[in-house]
Amino acid sequence: MKLSKNPLSMYVYDTVSAAVNGLKTRGYVTDFSLQENCLVCQDARYNAEDFEIVEVYRFEGDSDPADEAVVYAVDGSKGRKGVLVTGYGASAEGLSAEMAKKLSIEKH
User: Fold this and answer.
1) Distance CA 45, CA 51 (A)
2) CA gyration radius for the chain?
3) Extents of the domains making up the chain
4) What are the tens digits of pLDDT across the range 58-89?
5) What is the pTM of this model?
């Protein structure tokens, strides 16, 4: 793996699955999912102030915009480290403003 110049993207991955697997080998083992105003995993909920995004990897589909995805490495305040995989662009609809800002890759 090569180092990247983006401080929140520490490694370079060719695919979403490679990014997820790489993060999991480095301790990001929890699978987070996204709801309108929080992240959830198992029995826990994380509001925007309860987690930090520590790495971000964006993947663009070559021919199909539906193939675009973002992989986030997440440190939760309850000690859980994990991965969030979301679509990019239109899939952000329905998020609270606070969550959209927290997950915005433009600010990184």
Assistant:
1) 10
2) 13
3) 16-102
4) 888 765 555 688 999 999 987 899 999 988 75
5) 0.80
